[in-house]
Specification:
The protein is α/β, with parallel strands linked by helices and 320 residues long. It has ten helices and 18 strands. Helix 4 packs parallel to helix 5 and helix 7 packs across helix 9. The chain is elongated.
Length: 320
C-alpha cells in the first residue's frame, strides 16, 4: 500500500447538496449536473456588476447577493433587471447565494434556469454567510499532498512518523495505540495546509486500517474501540525512523532542532535511529512530551547551560 508524495491541484468539484448541507443553505435552483467547480477562496458581491461594471469581475467566485443588491434590483424596471441579471449569469460563476432569507426576484430564477446555474438561500446576513463560506472554501481548496507514513495523536501532539518500509512504523504505532494513544492514518497520510497549520487525515478507503506484516490488514477501530482513532489531527512534529548507522553522529543534546518543509510550513523534525533493544514507543512518547514542554517555553539546553554557570560560580566561591 505504498503511496508516493503527490501534490493535488488547489481546486475541486463539490456536490450542490453537500455544499448546501454543510453551510445550512436552502436550494432554490440546482444545476443539471448537481455539482459545482470551486477554484478560488475568494467570494464576490456583484453590486458593481449589476450596475454594468465587469472590468475586474471574478467570474470563478461564489456570488453573494444581500439586501443592498436586492434593493438595487427592485428599483430597476423589469427589462433592465432582466438584462442586468442575464449578463451576470452569462459569466459562469459556481453559484449564487442570497443572504438574509430574502425572496429572489423572478428574473433570478429565470436566469438560473436559462444558464443552468445553482441558486441558494441563507437565513444569515451577508457578513455571516461570507465568513462561513470563507472558512469552508479555505478547507475545501487547501493545498494538499498524500505522503507515506503514520500519523498519531500522542498526548495531544500530532506526530507524523516516517521512514522506509519495514523499519517498524506500524509495529511502533500498534504499541502506542495499546498504550492509549490514537491513530489518525497509516501508510497514506493526506496532508492539507489550512492557513498556517498542517492538518492530516486518512484516505476514506483505508481509514482506521493498518497493515501489519505477517497478519495483514487490521481495523483499529474494531479492535480497540472508537477511542483509539481520530479523524483528523494538526501535525506538530515529524519523527523519521531509520536503521542505526554506526558511522553517523546522532543528536545527543537537542541544542538545535531540524525542520521539514511541508507545503511551505516548517515543522520540527527528529531522526530516531532504530536497532534491536530500543523501545520506540517509549521514545516517541518522550519526544511528544518534550515537544509540549518546549511549547510552554522550557528549553532544556538553556537550563543545562544555566546549571553549568551556577556550578562554575559555586566552584569559584568555594576556592575563594
Amino acid at each position: 500500500m505504498d503511496i508516493d508524495n503527490e501534490l493535488e491541484e488547489n481546486e475541486t468539484d463539490v456536490k450542490v447538496k453537500e455544499f448546501a448541507a454543510h453551510l445550512g443553505l436552502e436550494i432554490l435552483h440546482t444545476c443539471k449536473s448537481g455539482s459545482m467547480h470551486m477554484a478560488t477562496l475568494n467570494i464576490n458581491r456583484p453590486g458593481l456588476q449589476l450596475s454594468g461594471y465587469y472590468e475586474h469581475f471574478g467570474k470563478d467566485r461564489v456570488q453573494v447577493i444581500g439586501e443592498m443588491e436586492t434593493a438595487y434590483l427592485k428599483q430597476l424596471n423589469g427589462s433592465d433587471r432582466l438584462n442586468a441579471l442575464e449578463k451576470l449569469f452569462s459569466f459562469g460563476f459556481p453559484c449564487l447565494v442570497i443572504s438574509s432569507g430574502l425572496e429572489p426576484c423572478a428574473e433570478i430564477i429565470a436566469c438560473a434556469e436559462k444558464y443552468d446555474k445553482t441558486v441558494l438561500r441563507s437565513k444569515q446576513r451577508s457578513t455571516m454567510i461570507i465568513n462561513g463560506l470563507s472558512i469552508y472554501l479555505n478547507e475545501l481548496l487547501a493545498p494538499r499532498i498524500v505522503t507515506h507514513g503514520v500519523l498519531l495523536d500522542l498526548y495531544g501532539v500530532g506526530v507524523l512518523m516516517t521512514g522506509k518500509s519495514s523499519v517498524g512504523k506500524s509495529e511502533t504505532a500498534i504499541e502506542l495505540i495499546q498504550r492509549g494513544h490514537r491513530l489518525v492514518a497509516d501508510d497514506a497520510v493526506c496532508i492539507k495546509r489550512v492557513s498556517d497549520r498542517l492538518v492530516g487525515s486518512s484516505p476514506e478507503l483505508i481509514r482506521y486500517m493498518m497493515e501489519v506484516r505477517g497478519i495483514g490488514i487490521v481495523d483499529i477501530r474494531r479492535l480497540y474501540g472508537a477511542g483509539a482513532v481520530k479523524l483528523t489531527k494538526v501535525i506538530d512534529m515529524v519523527v523519521n525512523l531509520e536503521t542505526w548507522d554506526e558511522e553517523k553522529e546522532y543528536d545527543r543534546l537537542g541544542g538545535s532542532t531540524a525542520t521539514k518543509d511541508i507545503l511551505g510550513i516548517e515543522i520540527p523534525s527528529y531522526t530516531i535511529p532504530v536497532k534491536s533493544g530500543r523501545n520506540l514507543a517509549v521514545i516517541l512518547e518522550v519526544a511528544a512530551r518534550n515537544h509540549r514542554i518546549k511549547g510552554m517555553g522550557f528549553d532544556i539546553v538553556k537550563e543545562l547551560e544555566r546549571r553549568q554557570m551556577t556550578a562554575s560560580d559555586n566552584d569559584i566561591w568555594q576556592e575563594d
